[in-house]
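Note to self: the last two entries modelled the partners one at a time, which told us nothing about the interface. This time every component goes in together.
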Amino acid sequence: MENHVSYALHILEEPVQYLALAFMALMYIIKISQMLKKPIPPEKAELKGDRVAGAFDSLLNVLKPWSMESTRNNPYFYIEFLIFHIGVALTIGATFFIPLFPSLMTLTVSKIFMIFMGLAFLIGLRRIYRRLTVPEIRIISSPDDFFAITLMTVFFAVGFGAMSLWIKGSPDTGWMWIFFLMTTFFLLYVPFSKISHYVLYPFGRINFGRIFGGRGVLNKNVKAPSWNPK
Amino acid sequence: MGLPAIPIVNDPGLDEAVKDLTPEKISNVVNRIIDSETAARFKVYMKTCVHCGLCSDACHWFLSNDRDPRFSPVGKVKQTLWEIIKRKDSLDPAFLKECSRIAHTECNVCRRCSMYCPFGIDIAYLLMVVRRICSELEMVPQFLQDTVNSHSVTMNQMWVKQDEWIDTLQWQEEEAKGEIKTARIPLDKEGADVFYSVIAPEPKILAQLIGNIAQIMAVAKVDWTMPSFDGWDNSNMAMFSGDFETMGRVERYHHEAAQKLKARRIVMGECGHAFRGAAYDGPRWLGWRQPPIPLIHAVDFYHELITTGRIKIARKFKTPVTVQEPCNIVRGRGLGQKLREIIAATCEDFTPPDPDFEHNYCCGAGGGVINCGPPWKTSRVKGNRVKAEQLADTKAQIIITPCHNCHSGIEDIISGYKLGMHVKFFSEILMEVMEIPDEMRA
Ligand code: SF4
Ligand code: SF4
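The predicted structure of the combined assembly is written out below.
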């Protein structure tokens, strides 16, 4: 797919995005280093299992819906989760592939991207609906939650629109401008929002895995601990 | 949202203490605890939670209260900790009273919700931070605080005096000798293989359990001892009230009593929370590199006695049984499989509960909730309807549970929901089925 765009859009698609990306990375470095300044007291009790195996197990449980009761009991929710997050990855990916590797975005690849964007958009709408109507979710929803999910949902729709024009040979459209402006905004906003959970995910999961792995609750078949990080 | 009013419970521990609170006092404590006592995971959890509500279905309180969102795990954190963080310097006393009600009486810190959360967020830990703040502000339900006061003064949970303790042991030794000639309760014996510790309700109201263990030890020919001095009570309600200083003292006494007697290992009686305190929370608070003496729970011990043949099973227990798996030793220590194996070795007709193992529901009594006493009993029993339904589905007549909190909590559920079942400790089953050589019989 060709990507002949105006100089202004080129600036937005590349240098502006790189700056925003660098800002996001910096914010995360600060955030994580502040978090890790706090003590991490280890468990002192005798090991009953494998902490390392537990941590790996826990980290990968996003890929094992059967390992977590919430997804085991609700496979539909897991499928929804999977599609939504693939949609997120592909939509963000598109903002890099389009300016940097347009040749990779063949018609088939682009259509796959668009299918996921479309599905993620519908799931986004469903998630907004759930936030508004399910009592236990509504009671805990903050303005940031509504803002973030609405923004994501609009982002998918805009991405879908921009790409549908892009595959028709119109790379420099209003949709594309909005798509990249939103991407830039995301990069600046995400470190301060709940969307950061994807960066923090490993910390909670590793901690969970270390504890329950070390206590012999996860990886029940591991005979001897591989490492005792006391 | 049209939610029903939460019934007002009069508890002098909260109603009186709230009168002494001022916004300044509250803010000082909140800032101190959040800034200097919380660990890295506190920040991680607070920042990671995406407010998805997936943890809700894990909590028996939520399920049993008709999915009232105020009882969901994250709902409890929202009503307490999120507000505390948001309004750190302008918190009013009435709000703190609500926090104590939620954290002390509506969460069993059972950690089932951690198994549901996609991020593994430990909500129980977050609510323990709330309990800690409340405890530092003396906002603790009266009955629970009374057990902590007892720990602090007598080093046991039930104001048992030393002479009462020794007297009870002697009485139970006599009882045990009436059954098995060689049964003894060796006091203060140095260098024994096993230092056996119990929780204070045993000498106070369930003394026969001590007599039972004397018989089991005699049959298995275990070299064991109990201390005549403080440190015999392995329970720790201070761990649940949020008084971690007292928790540390209690755990230190327990371990040091075993050390003083140069015991090779500690075997703890059938109690889940006591094990949690001695194996995990106590040593962590005390900053010990590791507990000074190896420590095992009764389930581990009975498993060892049965699988090594030191206790032989003469006949199997025939009445249909099921199990209440204590959170603190099954989810908290992975002893679920061993518990199943000793039940399989001793019982003929076992039906597992569903869900089970680390996914099993809490008994509703643990985490200090039952210790909040009679004022909170109605809400506690109402908050565990799912457990009643789960147990009824097994159609068992006996529920085995190696934990005192579970035992009392399940008894309340049985009577509250008229299940017509009975609860037994594993040692009670063992007493009925173990082989006692004729020459040992009195
Ligand atoms: S009672 Fe258990 S499941 Fe419910 S919030 Fe507390 S720790 Fe979580
Ligand atoms: S499941 Fe985890 S992330 Fe979701 S609301 Fe509960 S604690 Fe937060």
